[in-house]
Amino acid sequence: MVCVLLLNIAFANANSSINADCHQSPLIWGWIDWPPFIYQQADGEFKGIDYQIISKVMAKISCEVTLSSYPIPWRRQLAWLEVGQIAMMNGASKTPEREKYAYFSIPYRSESVSLFIRKADLETRSISHLSQLLDSNIHSLGYSKGSYYGEEFAQLLNQAEFAKRLYSDFDINNFHRLSNARLDAVIADSISGAALIKQLELSDQIIAMPGMKIVTGDIHIMFSKKVVSLALIEQVNQAIKDYKTSAEYQQLMQTLTRSP
Fold it and tell me: 37-70 b/e with 16+ CB inside 10 Å = b?
C-alpha cells in the first residue's frame, strides 16, 4: 500500500467537511504555533517534534492528513474537534471531559509544566507546590484557559481564592506581562515555555522556579468521535508502538530532553 501524507496548508480549510474514511478524504489537523512541538517556518514548511512524530505515524497507516489553513487557538481547537470541524489535534492530555467527545491514541510522549517567575523575585516568591500559592505573594498567575496543568491545578480551580488570581491569555502575552511586572508568575509547558522565553529574548529576566516542575503525564493525539472510528484509532496505536521502537524516535526524545 502506498503511503500518502498531505501536509500542505494550501489544501486545507478548517471549515471544510470531513469524510470519516481517512483513505478517501484528508483528516484536518488543527494546530497552533507551539515550538518546539509544532511550528511553521517563514517558507511555510512545518517543523517540530509532534509534527514529525504524527506525520510519520499517519503516513505509516496511509492516512491522508492536512494541517488547517491557519493556526487555531487551543480552546477553539477543542470546540471544533467536539463538533467534527477538525478531525485531530496534537499535544493533548486525556481528561474525562474530553473523553466525552474525543478518542485518544496511546501516548507518544510525556509532559510537564513549570511555574515561571522573574529572576529578581526568585527569593521572595519561591514555592514548591501549587497549593502554597494561596498563602504566597503570587497574586496574579498567567495561564492558557483550556490547557491541562495537572490534577492539582484542576482541583484548585474549584477554589475561589485560587481562581481569582488567574489571568488567561496566550503564553506569549503572559510572558510579556510577566516581564513587565503585570503578572507575578506564569504556568506553562516546561519545554515550550523555556523555548518561548528564549525566542522573546527574556532569558535574562524570566526563570522556571527551581523544584516546581509538575508532571502532567502522558500526551496523546486527540481525534474527534464525529470524524474517525475506533478501527482507525487501533491502526494509529499500532503505528505509534512501532515508531517508538525506532532509532529516529529515540533521537527525537533525546532532542526533547536537551531543549531549553
Answer: bbbbeeeeebebbbbbbbbbbbbbbebbbbbbbe
Q: What is the pTM of this model?
A: 0.85
Estimate the crossing angle of helix 190-199 against helix 171-179, to 10 degrees: 60
Q: Which residues pair with 77 in a beta bridge?
A: none
**196/238 Cα distance (integer angstroms):** 33
How far apart, in whole angstroms, are the C-alpha atoms of residue 251 and residue 260?
Answer: 16
Give per-residue pLDDT as tens, 6-47: 444 333 344 443 444 565 579 999 999 999 999 999 999 999
Q: Torsions phi, psi of 215, nearest 5?
A: -75, 115
Q: How far is CA 63 from CA 159, 227, 236, 245, in A?
A: 44, 13, 9, 21
Phi/psi of residue 89, nearest 5 degrees:
-150, 155
Domains identified in the chain and CATH numbers: 9-109+217-258 (3.40.190.10), 111-215 (3.40.190.10)
Which amino acid appears at position 64 of this protein? E
What is the CA angle 78-184-177, rounded to 5?
65
Residue 210 CA to residue 75 CA, distance in Å, equals 29
**Residue of 132, 199, 151 whose CA lies nearest to 171:** 199
Q: Which residues pair with 112 in a beta bridge?
A: 215
How many whole angstroms separate alpha carbon 57 and alpha carbon 67? 15
Average pLDDT, the chain: 89
The Cβ-side half-sphere exposure at 50, using a 13 Å CA radius, reads 28
Backbone angle region of 193, left / alpha / beta, with phi > 0 → left and psi within -120 to 50 → alpha: alpha
Q: Under DSSP, is residue 221 helix (H, G, I), strand (E, B) or coil?
A: strand
